[in-house]
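User: Chitin binding protein. Structure?
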Amino acid sequence: MGRSWGVVAVMVLCASGLLGIVRGHGSMEDPISRVYRCRLENPERPTSPACQAAVALSGTQAFYDWNEVNIPNAAGRHRELIPDGQLCSAGRFKFRGLDLARSDWIATPLPSGASSFPFRYIATAAHLGFFEFYVTREGYQPTVPLKWADLEELPFINVTNPPLVSGSYQITGTTPSGKSGSHLIYVIWQRTDSPEAFYSCSDVYFTDALSLHSTT
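Assistant: Predicted structure:
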């Protein structure tokens, strides 16, 4: 009887899309990632044009599985494994809608050169590991497919095992200085208890006004 109920439970999870959530692990919450924003908009009826286009290309399940934009065997080989133009999907066909080169991805206003800024990474499963935050170079064009060369060479934040508070990793750091206008923040979460790594793209708009920061 127990085994039968277990099989039924797995079938129900697969049918409802919850199995992906159970094994998923996280994404950027603030500034919000593309995949998490589209999930919050509702994959069945997304409201922004960019999310509508992403869902039309990838299908709805990719956004129910928002927390598994990953490579199981990455082991730090991110640039080797992820082709140019596919950074936001981590090279996974399932998430290809995240790579759409568009100017209308909703961007989070972000102050340039602000110290002690509270970044947040929502985690559905906690793991030991380190986070690397990269930002695009000056001259970034969101309508051109994102390449590795479009990112600054070094991360502006590199932190190991940040505190997990209320389901989100709290990562305090200084935002990139000298930036203005539209940019993208690319975050890599590399586990140290496994070769698995997670990836996210957050569209941002840099401003000098701290008061303009928003998570919505």
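The chain has one domain: 20-212. Residues 20-212 form a domain with the Coagulation Factor XIII; Chain A, domain 1 fold (CATH 2.70.50.50).
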